[in-house]
Amino acid sequence: xxxxxxxxxxxxxxxxxxxxxxxxxxxxxxxxxxxxxxxxxxxxxxxxxxxxxxxxxxxxxxxxxxxxxxxxxxxxxxxxxxxxxxxxxxxxxxxxxxxxxxxxxxxxxxxxxxxxxxxxxxxxxxxxxxxxxxxxxxxxxxxxxxxxxxxxxxxxxxxxxxxxxxxxxxxxxx
Length: 174
What we know:
By secondary structure, this protein is α+β, with helices and mostly antiparallel strands.
């Protein structure tokens, strides 16, 4: 799974749980390097300057991961390989397994973390969640794995067991 971008991809995968977070973090990382190298016309990449850029462009959760990545990235990236490196990093990220996850509402980052940890234990250690909001999965969630759709929602329960639902409604009607 981890190839020429080595440790940078490994750190990103360890601390990133959704495709949106991964895209955003790689964008911030690549922009920090490109802006530093091309706009400062520098032949040497300096860690402190990159950290300043990341502080100005990142949320706290992004900073935590990107600060872990930076020292390794500075060791692996130089002026002559910067474009090739980020192209390869994006290609390797594109090879990671993605699990589309449909939720009825946006969840806090802590809950996405819990779902992701479960998925990484059960499915793949570097899987990324591709979170979508779908109000039709109220009372549960849905996901796609190996091209098969799985749904655990109140709506599905009603369709699968209408007698249970009508029994509950009958109890309230009495």
